Amino acid sequence: MSIKNLIEFDSYSERKAFDETKAGVKGLVDAQITEIPRISRLPQGTLADKKTSVSASDFAIPIIDFAGVHVDAASREVVVEKIKDAAGNWGFFQVINHGVPLSALEEIKDGVVRFHEQDLEVKKSYFTRDAAKKFVYNSNFDLYSSSSCVNWRDSFACYMAPDPPKPEELPMACRDAMIEYSKHMISLGYFLFELLSEALGLNSEMLKSLDCMKGLLILGHYYPPCPQPDLTLGTSNHSDNSITILLQDQIGGLQVLHEDCWVDVSPLPGDLLINIGDFLQLMTNDKFISVEHRVLANRAGPRISVASFFSTSMLPNSTVYGPIKELISEENPPKYRNINLEEYTKGYFVKGLDGTSYLSSFKI
């Protein structure tokens, strides 16, 4: 066999073989592999790219305390101003004292663990690549479309609004936790959109009136321990398509790109992360920004995170979105063309997490 043939390999066939096990990355770990498969290997030197990794002590994303927001108008204005600054300069911020009970946070993380660590034959019954299914479990939603490496991560996804599944359509392992957690996310989401609207100088109901709260998609990510964490990624560089509330455990590994530096996002007890996402960057005409982030693989594992996306995403939606008219003027003309949300999301999913911005293709 030639050297060329040794170097090159049929990535599609190996991805398909991996997919057909329905066991995900966890299946590789359960098989006690000591080397990660070729499809999960990053090009040499990718992690040590020109962007510097810095610790949270050098550069820290904003932490915003919601405790005083209901006290009086002045306290609320302080919080709104902090949100305006964070959304415009970082695209990410951590919130504490947000009102979601710690018990609900712990239970949804436990539910993610229970689902991914249950008997494989039970878990396989939920395996699908049909995004229209009520509950979707697989590894790497962009397995066949992305040119990046196969990420060291398994996931489940479920729309909990506007048309939530019947309880019996959810796995027993995470059923009660999903139902309870989604209620808290919808409540926090409504409040968050009020504050974001005010941070834009708009009526507090503006973003909600534009159907920003219409859909809630919850993803439960499971990052197994990796035998060679320096050779792959838990999640490749990407920006989210919509605003996200992220819960992560205490293992860490999330990094946000800020001023050409990868900044570690250190978990805080009971905190939640807010990620602005592409749609809000478009709708705010760049007043708020959507930024790249990634998750490093690690030996400690399993790392757990729960992402709540406020978007109808792949659900049928004929609404056309563009920069909010109150935010544009002759001096500040629209920077993006109008988009159809469903069409946009399908393109985003096909592109996959390849480290490039899909939003940039909609710039005027």
Describe it.
The model is unreliable at 1-7 (pLDDT under 50). Helix 5 crosses helix 7. The protein is of the alpha+beta class and 364 residues long. The strands form three sheets. It has an eight-stranded mixed beta sheet with strand order 2-3-11-8-13-6-5-4. It has helices at residues 3-7, 11-20, 24-30, 73-89, 102-116, 120-124, 175-199, 206-209, 277-283, 341-351, and strands spanning 52-54, 63-65, 92-96, 135-138, 154-161, 216-223, 233-238, 244-248, 254-258, 261-264, 272-275, 293-296, 303-309, 320-321, 339-340. The protein has a single domain (49-362), classed as Sandwich (Jelly Rolls). 29% of the residues lie in helices and 19% in strands. Strand 2 (63-65), helix 4 (73-89) and strand 3 form a beta-alpha-beta unit. The chain is globular, with a radius of gyration of 20 Å. It is built from ten helices and 15 strands.
> Ranges with pLDDT <50 over ≥5 residues?
1-7
Structural class: alpha+beta
Strand content: 15-25%
CATH class: Mainly Beta
User: How many separate structural domains?
Assistant: 1
N-C termini distance: 51 Å
Helix content: 25-40%
* Cα-atom radius of gyration: 20 Å
* H/E topology pattern: HHHEEHEHHEEHHEEEEEEHEEEEH
**Strands across the major sheet, in which order?**
2-3-11-8-13-6-5-4
CATH superfamily: B-lactam Antibiotic, Isopenicillin N Synthase, Chain
The dominant shape is globular
CATH topology: Jelly Rolls
**What summary fits the major beta sheet?**
8 strands, mixed
What is the overall number of helices?
10
User: Average pLDDT, to the nearest integer?
Assistant: 90
Overall number of strands = 15
User: What is the name of the CATH architecture?
Assistant: Sandwich
GO molecular function: dioxygenase activity; metal ion binding
Cofactor: Fe cation
Organism: Microthlaspi erraticum
Domain Fe2OG dioxygenase: 214-313
